Every structure is written in structure tokens, then in C-alpha cells.
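subagent[fold] <- orchestrator: predict structure for attached chain, return C-alpha cells only, no commentary.
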Amino acid sequence: MNNPPHITVVPPSLGFCALEYSPGFKPSTPSDIESVILFAIKSESGAVSLLLHPQWQRIVQDPDLPYFAGLIEDFRARAKLQPDALFQHLCSLSVGPLIVHQSGTVLAEDPKLSELSAQFVRA
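subagent[fold] -> orchestrator:
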């Protein structure tokens, strides 16, 4: 079965981390699902999948674009070489332009986040 290009099938996971963009390196309060820009999903095999908001370049403010693009490239490389370390790192982010919105073991247990992740694209 072929999925439309805008639908991402999220595999069963051992854990997930939803990360939000925090403009100006200030935590957004209250945290809102609309600020989620990246998902890190750890599969049963230990691999880490990165799902990125399809409009991330419009969401991230201009001054942060080069930095954020560099982060995504780094995350892609580390997902292949050091998936466990990357996943732990992403799930611990609490300062900077990318911070943890929510983490857990089963993404499907949060219908709003699960639905949102299905709209994201593989990074």
C-alpha cells in the first residue's frame, strides 16, 4: 500500500520525544502543540527516526535558520552513528531554540501528538 507523500507512517516505538521551537531561546509558556517542530522516535530495533515539520523553514525565525539547519544535519548524522546518544540528548533539551515539549514511550497514547506526527516528514 502506498501512502500519500504528506502522510508519515510512524513505526511502533520504544520511545518518542516531541521537540518545540523556542524563538529567541525563551521557553514558550504555556507550551503549545503548535510549537512542536521535530519528533525523535526510537524504534524497537534501536534506530532513531527524525520527523520534521514540513514548514519548518517558515516557522523558524530568520536569525535562527542557519543554526537550526545545522542542528538538523547534525541530528541526521548522529541518528545513523549514535542513535542512543542522540535520542537521550534530544529528550534532555531544556534550553536553546529546541526544547522538549513532551516525551514518553508510546506516541499513539497521545492522540493529538500522534496525529501531528503523521503530518511531519522524515528529516
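orchestrator: received. Logging for downstream: The radius of gyration is 14 Å. Strands lie at 13-21, 36-43, 48-52, 98-104, 121-122.
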